Amino acid sequence: MHQFELSCWFRFKNMNVIGLNxxxxxxxxxxxxxxxxxxxxxxxxxxxxxxxxxVDYDEDADEITTMAFEHPGPVCALSSCTASNNWIFTCSNExxxxxxxxxxxxxxxxxxxxxxxxxxxTLTSKKVISNVIWEPNGxxxxxxxxxxxxxxxxxLDSTLECQTNLSIPxxxxxxxxxxxxxxEKLIAFGIGDCIYEWDIRTNQNTTKIENAHExxxxxxxxxxxxPFHLVSSGDDCMIRIWDTRNAKxxxxxxxxxTHWIWNVSFNKYHDQLLLSCSSDCQVNLQSVVSVSSAxxxxxxxxxxxxxxxxxxxxxxxxxxxxxxxxxxxxxxVYGVAWSPSDPWIFASLSFxxxxxxxxxxxxxxYNIIL
Length: 370
Prior knowledge:
The model is unreliable at 1-6 and 298-315 (pLDDT under 50). It is built from 1 helix and 29 strands. The chain has one helix spanning 362-369, and strands at residues 8-12, 15-19, 24-29, 37-43, 50-58, 63-71, 77-80, 87-92, 95-101, 114-122, 131-134, 142-146, 151-155, 162-165, 174-179, 186-191, 194-199, 204-209, 217-222, 229-234, 239-243, 252-254, 261-266, 273-278, 283-287, 321-326, 333-338, 345-350, 354-359. The strands form 6 sheets. It has an 8-stranded mixed beta sheet with strand order 3-4-5-6-10-9-8-7, with no helix packed on it.
């Protein structure tokens, strides 16, 4: 019988926390959600049974609820279908499996028992698969699957076989990959300390950034509002933003973490906001407005509705720099993910199973929208 791990939810000022009481390494936004703040979390317990959790944050009720789905093995990575359905991929024991999430309520979740995942199929591969990425523009029939030493594009038809084996020169281990949302033929790979941008139609390299980091490249993300802009993070505690058209030097470097940076993510709607998380137990929210699609204004903006005696509460337009460092975790933070429905809400996950839902500070929010 599958053991159900009870979670513990509690709230502090301006943030909500839930503990799953299981080790975890992966969190992603549940794509296709337009009205709910929802994420997917996979557990990686070695000596106990594992689950995929659907996590819901209800802003009106100010409460986190979860729904658990039994999973046959530790979840090393998971991904949510970019279209509006309940398909997910999980990677476990070097195998990628496509599942359907059944009976998901439209409102708050009830964590009363463990539900069953509906298995659709398994990717046909003789090679190790450590992660799967959906084509980012809603094409549910195409995914990228990669492991330490190989990568291929799969078509989700009746066979689920590899359509194109990518002949990437594997000089080191593939640590991460990201599909270009502006050009579906391009995928960026973090291989060792280098970044490759690969054309999957010609099966050739278009960009190589050598020594992008001093050690391994851990995470990549494209700016969805500014083509050619790519952010990377690495084991050298650095974040770098690149223009792939001229990548000899980065556009920006950030050095506010003190240990490996596992995940970095642009805000899809306000790309001057950049999230990162690290083994230093910190989640950082940065403003990178000078290299974003938003104009940079350093002057104070005064609203006609504000009286002279209220000038001290006026805001300034967003500027580059660390907005806030969130320290509610007590273990390495392996993942951060923006809400799929609200651009001002995000969640982070640490190895001990703690999930923290946080908000972009109100002052920064108003700096952006006013």
